[in-house]
Write a structure and sequence with these properties.
Blueprint: E1 4-8, E2 13-20, E3 23-30, H1 35-49, E4 59-63, H2 69-86, E5 90-93, H3 95-104, E6 111-116, E7 122-128, E8 131-139, H4 141-151, E9 155-158, E10 173-176, H5 181-191, H6 208-218
Parallel strand pairs: 1-4, 4-5, 6-9, 9-10
Antiparallel strand pairs: 1-2, 2-3, 6-7, 7-8
Helix pairs in contact: 3-5
Length: 219
């Protein structure tokens, strides 16, 4: 297991995780509107708690979204600053997809990660035993229900039920959770995506709503 540091700030939860000495160590706080103030102190606290120096870290992982616009900008700017200051490569991972993947590997039936995207829409990703069925997408609840039936989803995870209670009956089980830096590291360690340096690319957030708006303008 490589020594990796992950950050995830796409929702109300602010989390950092460190893979070190064969384990994943996590620090998480529910800090709505305070991610910018909390994130770097949480990174420092986690590293100090395990006596890990920045030079020991082999790579950085950040949750690129989809999610809250401000949270995604914070994660992107912080990972860029750390990559520059520590001279480390980085990998961008969808926190939504990582959450779906993480739960799906222990389930027989497909798992849907569903987050409230506001404006009457949902962010969704569906995985079946670690295999992607639906990538991170922005959809209406009606379209989501079609996918749940199409893929015969069993477990649902996320925070969407509070805004879309009609979804409750569509799942055999539901767990209210937020994307976590731990999900990012679990997925990265299993799938081993490529890492990039700042010389090759800059960290980029995943803004699904912007993409949809741009497509609509082009029609």
């Amino acid at each position: 297991m490589k020594t990796l540091l992950a950050i995830e700030t796409s929702t109300r939860a602010c989390s950092v995780a460190l893979s070190y000495a064969g384990k994943i160590h996590v620090l998480e706080e529910m800090t709505p509107q305070a991610h910018a103030k909390m994130l770097l102190p949480m990174v420092d606290k986690l590293l100090q708690s395990k006596s890990v120096r920045p030079e020991e870290i082999e790579g950085l992982v950040f949750g690129q979204g989809p999610g809250a616009f401000t949270g995604l900008r914070i994660a992107t700017s912080v990972v860029q600053g750390l990559a520059l200051g520590w001279n480390k490569p980085f990998s961008a991972v969808s926190g939504l997809e990582a959450m779906a993947w993480s739960y799906s590997v222990s389930q027989q039936k497909p798992v849907a990660a569903v987050l409230d995207a506001r404006m009457g829409e949902c962010y969704v990703s569906i995985y079946a035993q670690g295999q992607q069925c639906v990538p991170a997408s922005l959809v209406s609840p009606e379209r989501l229900i079609e996918w749940l039936e199409q893929y015969e989803v069993g477990l649902g995870v996320g925070d969407a039920l509070a805004s879309f209670p009609m979804l409750q009956q569509r799942f055999s089980q539901w767990q209210t959770v937020q994307p976590s830096a731990q999900h990012l590291l679990e997925m990265v360690q299993a799938l081993r995506p490529s890492f990039k340096t700042l010389d090759a690319a800059l960290p980029v957030p995943l803004y699904l709503r912007n993409q949809v708006a741009e497509k609509a303008k082009g029609r």
